[in-house]
Amino acid sequence: MNNTMLSSIAKNHSTKGILSTTGSAIAMAIMIRTISNELSPFGFNFKAFVVKNLRKLFNHFSSQITMVFEEYSDLTTNNIYVAAETYLGSKSLASTKRFKVCQDKNNKSYVFSMGKLEELVDVFEGIRFNWRYKSKETRFQITPTASDFDSNIKRRSELRCYELSFHKKHREMVLDSYLPHIKKAAKALEEENRVAKLHTMSSDGPTYYRSAWSSVNLNHPATFDKIAMDDRLKKMIMEDLERFVRRREYYKKVGKAWKRGYLLYGPPGTGKSSLIAAMANYLNFDIYDLELTDIQNNSRLRRLLLSTANRSILVVEDIDCSLDFQKTRPVTQEGKHGAPKHNDNHNPVCIFVTIALIFIFIPCIYLSSSFDKVTNFLWRWQQLTLSGMLNFVDGLWSSCGDERIIVFTTNNKDRLDPALLRPGRMDIHIHMSYCDPCGFRVLANNYLEVSNHPVFEVIERLLEITNVTPAEVAEALMRNDDPDTALGGLVTLLEEKHSGTA
Ligand SMILES: Nc1ncnc2c1ncn2[C@@H]1O[C@H](COP(=O)(O)OP(=O)(O)OP(=O)(O)O)[C@@H](O)[C@H]1O
Ligand SMILES: [Mg+2]
């Protein structure tokens, strides 16, 4: 055989080889696919199995390791995820080709964050760190818990995470220096752009992957210098707040949770809510407005409180109206809240209601199809108890989080359970009283820009003998742009109030 023949046979042979190898590979792929299809109905995902093991094999030989920062850990937001988001956001404009843009909380500048599957390289102390942002839309089922009354609702949600890859020899350095560096930088950036927020409870109730709270910017203009109240009291509150925020180490040293409780009490329109807004603006803290009447049980309360952020003020307005806490309190010799003691059980109305309940209402519900729902609801409704509430304010749960302020407001301090009022729960009780001369001067300055006027003397004398709220004074001062007319109107109001005609 000559050379040309030999090479043509060799070529033929190799073509055949390629064809047969390709054929075998296709046959193998078809077989794997068939097996995987056969097995998948039994819950075995062959593709995932192969990918997982290939990854394991690859990881075994790779010098890189990957840390995953998921958005949620257990029931709460993962702080390091939030820090990474802020930190990487500040780098994404310069370092990525695709990023998300939104307006910042002050509506002053833009905030950037990484786009889906986008990668970013960050260099810290000469070492390269690879970041990748991932998000996956998922359908999951809420398990029927006490806090989610509408159980078995399917919802869409998103699972988000950042992946950080680096050489394994830097493992220690990442934990000791790089992550602390990210947290510090993120904190500085947050402080720069920070605007206090007002959070209200989400109407649908919390789920694992959706916030229990929805928020808006707290654009309340109240500040301490605009609040009409005794100057010494105002100063005391401001100093107390300042002392509280700088006492991180002190609280640790004495073994107390870093939190402080304020009770604001006084008649309607004396500035309790305004003072809360002034406190939030002063400290630049968020406000969480907790509506106790919308919470069915302790477990929902726990979830809500766990998803509040540090450096925040938790507010429960009108605590005496929110729940009938007094039910759990033993009746004293004088009866409830100092009222004369009488036996309710002997009241004819009470006897009639009890009989109606036993013989008509309960059998009716029992026979109806909604019996389970009603009993379930009543059972859950009863679960928000005073002891549950106290436990969050000053029990083990209260230690979840730092730099927390809790404010309760009430128009009737006497109606509150003493257990709620003791130091450690409500550390400072602030009486917001009727307008006094000192408060009036603040309001006159605010509303009319007047710091002195011949009629001040009359007004101040009348204020000392008349109960009028700062809200009423403010309203009178706003009625006219002309200070003389407005102040004259206030004198008339005070005189009418004093004589009992207003
Ligand atoms: N001490 C105050 N200083 C300045 N403004 C006040 C003060 N008290 C009331 N006001 C004015 O009156 C209005 C009502 O005040 P605010 O809502 O703070 O009273 P409140 O004590 O919370 O009343 P309520 O008990 O009904 O909730 C506010 O818009 C505020 O402008
Ligand atoms: Mg109020």
UniProtKB/TrEMBL annotation:
Cofactor(s) it depends on: Mg(2+)
Entries under Pfam families matching the protein: AAA (PF00004), AAA_assoc (PF14363), AAA_lid_At3g28540 (PF25568)
Catalysed conversion reaction: ATP + H2O = ADP + phosphate + H(+)
Record carries keyword Nucleotide-binding: yes
Statement: the UniProt record of this protein carries the keyword Metal-binding: no
UniProt KW keywords: ATP-binding, Magnesium, Membrane, Nucleotide-binding, Transmembrane, Transmembrane helix
SUPFAM superfamilies noted in UniProt: P-loop containing nucleoside triphosphate hydrolases
GO BP: response to stress
Domain AAA+ ATPase: 258-436
SMART domains associated with the record: AAA
GO molecular function, a single term: ATP binding
Transmembrane segments: 351-371
PANTHER family: BCS1 AAA-TYPE ATPASE
Family: Belongs to the AAA ATPase family. BCS1 subfamily.
The name this protein goes by in its record: AAA+ ATPase domain-containing protein
Organism of origin: Coptis chinensis
